[in-house]
Design brief:
CATH architecture of the largest domain: Beta Barrel
Number of helices: 2
Largest sheet: 16 strands, antiparallel
Order of helices and strands: EEHHEEEEEEEEEEEEEEEE
Number of domains: 2
Structural class: alpha+beta
Strand content: 35-45%
CATH topology of the largest domain: YmcC-like fold
Shape: globular
CATH class of the largest domain: Mainly Beta
Helix content: 10-25%
Length: 313
């Protein structure tokens, strides 16, 4: 197996110290590169907001006869103001993320020889033929989620990945249909190589928000589960600037005990997931050893998604 050059990509460890994540390998970067990327993203966001504004104004002009009070341009202006505020919030979140990660660019070098489809990380085991079934009550009704580890694989950046088919239903109607791809490195970290996500309404695809694939449009894989999690570790789970995929996670606690759907789990790992794209989106996830994710709590709404059963075929 070929040895690779260590990069200076770090995670923020306990007591605020910087820890090199051994499986994240790549080329050195200058301090501040991460901030520069964030500020370029701000400019792109602002430009996008302005583009949407002028499209809205064009529609207002085209439908002026239907808007005798001239409310349409005012609404477009209000939307522009809100969009600009969102751009600012994203910048603040990204700059904070950069500080947590040490300020360097994110550019891991992926050696396919260091990866496997045998994903046996105790906190994130993915055995083909296994389906994790989750349910939870939301403001919109009962949400049901089937997270099926298929026997299919897909290759990204030369790495063969396990394909997971994730289907979410709300009150029995499919609202999201997603394919996710994962692989495990030799150290035991589980990497996330992409997702193909479709949002549906009345059986019709209305969006593909969050979709990305490592290697396409400079998207890069991230770590979805560390081999040896430590409290206060912070890491990127995905990084697709063009695809609005910038999920992050930090380790909140280890060795916890929780009760989910009438079953008690011990030695539970708790992570906090957040995003530079959606600063207000925050979730806590609970992982039981040799099981995987058993509970997800939305910190904003309080909604819970609980593991209710695991099936195999």
């Amino acid at each position: 197996m070929r040895r690779m050059m260590l990069s200076n990509w770090f995670i923020r460890g306990a007591a605020g110290t910087l820890i090199l994540l051994g499986s994240a390998l790549g080329s050195p970067a200058q301090a501040g590169d991460c901030d520069e990327v964030a500020r370029s993203q701000l400019k792109a966001c602002q430009k996008g907001a302005e583009d949407e504004y002028w499209i809205a104004i064009a529609r207002c002009d085209n439908d002026a006869a239907e808007d005798p009070q001239g409310l349409c341009p005012k609404a477009a202006s209000q939307e522009l103001t809100a969009a600009r505020a969102d751009c600012g919030d994203q910048l603040d979140a990204r700059v904070q993320i950069c500080a947590q990660l040490g300020g360097d660019k994110y550019d891991p070098v992926i050696n396919p020889a260091n990866f496997s489809t045998n994903i046996n990380n105790p906190y994130f085991p993915l055995k083909p033929g296994t389906t994790f079934v989750y349910e939870g009550q939301t403001a919109g009704g009962l949400e049901h989620d089937d997270f099926q580890v298929t026997r299919k694989t897909h290759t990204f950046l030369g790495v063969e990945c396990v394909e997971v088919h994730d289907v979410v239903k709300l009150n029995g109607e499919v609202t999201e249909d997603t394919l996710d791809w994962f692989a495990q490195d030799n150290a035991g970290n589980v990497w996330y190589f992409g997702e193909e996500s479709k949002q549906l309404e009345d059986g019709i695809v209305i969006g593909i928000e969050g979709s990305w694939q490592a290697g396409a449009d400079d998207a890069k894989p991230g770590i979805v589960m560390e081999a040896k999690p430590k409290v206060r570790d912070v890491y990127r789970q995905e990084y697709a600037i063009a695809g609005d995929a910038e999920d992050m996670a930090d380790v909140v606690a280890l060795g916890q005990s929780i009760k989910v759907h009438g079953k008690t789990y011990n030695n539970v790992l708790v992570t906090h997931e957040f995003s530079g794209v959606e600063p207000s989106a925050n979730e806590r996830k609970f992982y039981a050893p040799n099981v995987g994710n058993v509970l997800t709590i939305d910190d904003e709404t309080g909604d819970r998604s609980e593991l209710i059963k695991i099936t195999t075929n």
